[in-house]
């Protein structure tokens, strides 16, 4: 009778949902909301994948693809790349612009004409863009991961070349 139980988990309940605290009534006090079992299963699958493939292998593949994109963009007249040339200072994200074109338009064209997803704008980082001189224009950002292929990088480079040739200004 004089035992006070404390909740093992905290979270939403079917009563008093607007409160950050667990309700003080039984059994609600001990019944937290539904655990995110789908999220837990997804996390488990992701961790298993990383452990099987190996973090070093994932990083190596990502670096090779990023370097292919970085080098390929440098060969396209009118493309401006942002970031260090040193591979040790890079991640799987490459930012670029096409001279004379709005970054949003480039991203839109990549999506509509070539079904290539990129992100355009300031990427929630206005200070970073201010430091590289792109605060007014933003950049196009391509993100490379371990599920991308060299063929997909080739398709992206071909698409950027096409947009540069048909829409851009290399002057």
CATH architecture of the largest domain: Alpha-Beta Complex
Order of helices and strands: HHEEHEHEH
Query: Taking strands numbered 1, 2, ... along the chain, how are they ordered across the largest sheet?
Result: 1-2-4-3
Class inferred from helices and paired strands? alpha+beta
Estimate percent helicity. 40-55%
Proportion of strand residues? 5-15%
Number of separate domains: 2
Report the total helices.
5
CA gyration radius, whole angstroms = 24 Å
CATH class of the largest domain: Alpha Beta
Q: What is the CATH homology-level superfamily of the largest domain? A: Aspartate Aminotransferase, domain 1
Low-confidence stretches: none
Number of strands: 4
Summarize the structure.
43% of the residues lie in helices and 11% in strands. It is an alpha+beta fold and 171 residues long.
Properties at a glance:
171 residues, alpha+beta, Aspartate Aminotransferase, domain 1, 2 domains, 5 helices, elongated
């Amino acid at each position: 009778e004089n035992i006070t139980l404390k909740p093992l988990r905290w979270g939403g309940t079917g009563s008093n949902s607007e409160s950050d605290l667990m309700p003080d009534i039984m059994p609600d006090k001990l019944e937290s909301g539904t655990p995110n079992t789908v999220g837990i299963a997804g996390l488990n699958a992701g961790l298993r994948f990383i452990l099987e493939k190996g973090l070093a292998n994932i990083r190596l593949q990502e670096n090779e693809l990023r370097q292919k994109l970085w080098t390929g963009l440098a060969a396209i007249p009118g493309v401006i790349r942002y970031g260090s040339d040193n591979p040790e200072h890079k991640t799987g994200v490459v930012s670029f612009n096409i001279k004379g074109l709005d970054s949003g338009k480039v991203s839109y064209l990549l999506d509509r004409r070539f079904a290539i997803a990129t992100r355009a704008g300031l990427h929630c980082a206005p200070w970073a863009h201010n430091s590289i001189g792109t605060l007014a224009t933003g950049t196009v950002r391509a993100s490379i991961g371990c599920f991308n292929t060299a063929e997909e990088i080739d398709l992206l480079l071909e698409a950027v070349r096409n947009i540069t040739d048909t829409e851009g200004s290399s002057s």
